[in-house]
Amino acid sequence: MLQVRVGWFELFNPNPGYEPMKRIAVVLCLLLGFAVASGFAQSQPPTIYISSDNGFQTAISAAFVKKHVKATILTRATKAEYTLQATPVDSKAESTGSKFARCMFMDCIGMNGYSEVSVQLVRNQDGAVVWAYQVRKGNSGPLGIQSLSEAIAKHLQHDYLDKHKEE
């Protein structure tokens, strides 16, 4: 007597010649499913609340957008992962008399005064300072504030956020 082994797939398959095509379709569907799932598993950008006085937080927020910082700025401190704390901006304008005196001795460079600020990024979970930066620019007034905030945004992205993507 001749024994024939037939699997369950062959019993219900009306066209046995198309089996390799079905296997390819199943593998492609699985690969597509894994690709879509890994796209959703990407980490979300960190959320940052900016704590500052006298409107400097608006300048920093604008600098984050301009410098393409990969973080979400929140207006509520309770929902943020981090808080960016800034000291008040210190601006010192050069007086007309000192400008004249400096130019008489051929030292006309940097006569627009200066602005400086210090910031620190604090992790809200445990209160740890994870990044700090101090910047001083040779401009005072609105131009100095823009320059300070753009320097903060650039250095926060390069010095901290780019190095801590995996965490």
Protein traits:
alpha/beta; 6 strands; 22% strand
Molecular structure report:
- The chain is built from five helices and six strands; from the N terminus they run ααβαβββαββα.
- By secondary structure, the protein is α/β, with parallel strands linked by helices.
- Strands 1, 2, 3, 4, 5 and 6 form a six-stranded mixed sheet that branches.
- Helix 3 links the parallel strand 1 and strand 2.
- It is elongated, with a radius of gyration of 30 Å.
Cα Rg: 30 Å
Give the termini distance in whole angstroms: 67 Å
Largest sheet: 6 strands, mixed
H/E element sequence: HHEHEEEHEEH
Secondary structure tally, helices? 5
**What overall form do the CA principal axes indicate?**
elongated
Strand content: 15-25%
Helix content estimate: 40-55%
How many strands in all? 6
Judged by helices, strands and strand pairing, the structural class is alpha/beta
The pLDDT mean sits at 78
Note poorly predicted spans: none
Question: How are the SSEs ordered, and which strands pair?
Answer:
Elements: H1 8-12, H2 19-40, E1 47-51, H3 56-66, E2 72-74, E3 82-86, E4 90-92, H4 96-104, E5 114-123, E6 128-137, H5 142-161
Parallel strand pairs: 1-2, 1-3
Antiparallel strand pairs: 3-5, 4-5, 5-6
Helix pairs in contact: 3-5
